[in-house]
Amino acid sequence: MKVLLVGSGAREHAIAEALCGAPDEDVQLYAFMGNRNPGIIRLAEDYIVGNPTDVEAVARAAADWNVDFAVVGPEDPLAEGVADRLEEEGVPTFGPKRGPARIEWDKGFARELMEKYDIPGCPEFGIFEDPDEACDFIDELGKPVAVKPAGLTGGKGVKVVGDQLKNLDEAKEYVREIFEEDIGGIPKVIIEEKCVGEEYTIQAYTDGEKVIPTPAVQDHPHAYEGDKGPITGGMGSYSCPDGLLPFMTKEDYERSVEILERAVEAIKEETGEPYRGVLYGQFMLTSEGPVVIEFNCRYGDPEAMNILPIAEGDIVTLHASIAEGSMEGEVEFLEKATVCKYVVPEGYPESSEGEGDVIEVDEECIHRYDAIPYYASVNLDEDGKIRMTSSRALAIVGIGDELERAEEAAESAIRECVSGERIRHRSDIGRRETVEKRVRRMERIRGE
Asked: Which of 56, 60, 361, 447 is most buried as measured by Cβ atoms within 10 A of its Cβ?
C-alpha cells in the first residue's frame, strides 16, 4: 500500500514509524516535507522537500507517486485545503477538509459552534472584529481573561492575564497588537474568561461518525523548568498506564470524550462534511469539570509521540479507512507510561541561538534505555550531519510500566545519547515532584 505523508516534524516521524512498523502490512511511504527529516527519509521510498501548504505541489506529488491514501500531519496544509485538493484527485485523506478543519484555524468558529450546539465545556467569551469593542468587553468582564488571535499561531498566540499578561491593561494592549500586526492572519480576536485548573489533551480518531478516544496526555508548553518562560509549541508531555492522568478521574475523562463526540456531530451538521482524522481536544480541568481551551484538527505535537508508540492493532487499516470515510480496524493502547522530552536549540523559542548547529544522536544508545528518538525540525545535510533549525530538534520518548520508569528512560537517553554545543531540554517533565505539584494544585481547586 502506497501512503503519502505530508509534514516533516517529530509528529510526522512518529506517524511514519507507526505506519511502516505495522505488522503484516506492506507499506510504501512517500513523503512531502518542509525539511530533510532523517528519520522520515530513512523510511521513505521517495520524498520531496517543498512547502506543505503548496496545495497543487502536494497534489502533483500524490499523482506522480500514485498513492493509495494520504496522511496530513500539520494544521497549516489542512487550513489551506490540501485534503480537499487530494480528494479531488481521488486520493482519500486522513485529515479533515478545510471546512471541518476550521475548528482549529478559526477559534471564533469553534466557540460559536459550541454555543450553537450546546456543547458542554464552553467558557464565557466574546468575538470581536474591532479592537475597541474587544477592550470594552474586557472592562465589562472585570476579571482575568485569555486573549486569543482567531487564526493559526503555532501554539504561541494565546496570552493569559496572570501568566503572559500582568493585568487587564496589558490584555488590551495585546488586543491592539493582534490587529496591528495581523497575528493569526484573521482580523478577529476572542476574549474568554480565564479558566483555572490543569490542562490536558485527549485525541480521538473519527470518520465523522464513530469516535475512538486515546489516552489522556499532559503537555508542558513553557520553555523552562518549573513552568516558567514563554509559551512554545510544547517542550514535552507524559501519559500514564491507565489512560488517565494523576489529577483526573474516570468521570473527567468520559465527560471530555463526550465533548469530542458532540463536537464531531456538530461539525458535520454545521459544515455538511464529515470530520475525518484526529480531533484533538485541549481541556482545562476546573472545579466545575472539563472546559475546552481549544480544538485542533490533527495529531498533537508532542502528544502524538505519547500515543503512537503504545498503539497496537490495525494502525494502517485505521488510517486508511478513516481516509475513505468508514472507520475500520481495531486499536488498543498498551498499559504503559510514556514521557516525551524535546531537545531544542539554546535560543528556542526567543532567538535563533543554536540554529545550524550539529546535533549528534546515538540511536542504538537511545534504544538501550527503552526510549525512542523522533526527529523534528532538523535537516540532514550533504555530509550526513544533522543540523538544527531555530525550532524543536528532537523528541525522545521513554516508555515504562510506571511513569517514573518512563521518565528515567527519556532523561537517561537524552543525557547519555544526545550531544550538541547549544542544546537544552526540560528535565522536570514527567518527574514525580512535577506531577505531584499538579495533583496538589487540582486538589486545592476542587476543595478536596
From this structure: 361
